[in-house]
Automatic annotation (TrEMBL):
Classification via InterPro entries: cNMP-bd_dom, cNMP-bd_dom_sf, RmlC-like_jellyroll
Domain Cyclic nucleotide-binding: 10-113
Domain of life: Bacteria
Taxonomic classification: Bacteria, Pseudomonadati, Bacteroidota, Bacteroidia, Bacteroidales
Pfam families, alphabetized: cNMP_binding
Source species of the chain: Candidatus Bacteroides pullicola
Coiled-coil parts of chain: none
Protein's name in the database: Crp/Fnr family transcriptional regulator
Length: 187
């Protein structure tokens, strides 16, 4: 629980009562590498707090995987479609390493957001941060050359850049693997 609570406390202070309300809803789980936590077209009914490990989210478009994000220690992963719109997921979330996580049902997460101001504020902040990341990523894809996109990625996500296969990073940046390999060779 350390990475998760540290990450939450870095964004918003939690009272001991709120910590307890959250941790009472969590179930520890372990997942092997390449395990799908969320699948397109399905409902998971849960969110996962990542204690150890890393995941990637991706779309499958015409048989091609397009990486949309990564999540490491302290992060939470879930289907936004399911949590907010009660619809099956439009993306996949898979573990890239053996992963230790804590599972919370979406019903419990929604209830905590409704009834606990501290957790509602945390939820708002993580979504503001995610919107900012998406906005920055979109702007960089449209305005920066590949080398600058990769440099920005390494600056924003240094740990991810060291732990994730280059093909996933290339997909996230919207460049080819040979291009990314050339960029890395120039460093």
């Amino acid at each position: 629980m350390k990475h998760i609570l540290d990450h939450i406390h870095a964004l918003v202070p939690l009272s001991p009562e709120t910590e307890r309300a959250l941790t009472d809803c969590l179930t520890p789980c372990r997942f092997p590498r390449r395990c799908l936590l969320v699948e397109e077209g399905r409902r998971t009914g849960a969110a996962f707090f990542i204690e150890r490990g890393i995941t990637r989210s991706y779309w499958l478009v015409n048989g091609v995987e397009i990486t949309t994000s990564f999540a490491a220690e302290g992060s939470i992963v879930f289907s936004m479609d399911e949590l907010y719109y009660d619809k099956p997921s439009e993306e996949y979330v898979e573990t890239l390493e053996e992963t230790e996580a804590y599972k919370i049902t979406l019903d419990d997460l929604r209830r905590l957001f409704r009834t606990n101001l501290e957790l509602a504020n945390w939820g708002r902040i993580i979504h503001q941060n995610e919107y900012r990341r998406l906005h920055r990523s979109h702007k960089e894809r449209l305005t920066l050359p590949a080398a600058e996109r990769y440099a920005a990625f390494c600056q924003q996500f240094p740990d991810v850049a060291q732990r994730v296969q280059l093909g996933y990073i290339a997909s996230y940046l919207g460049i080819t693997l040979p291009t990314l390999s050339r960029l890395r060779g120039r460093k």
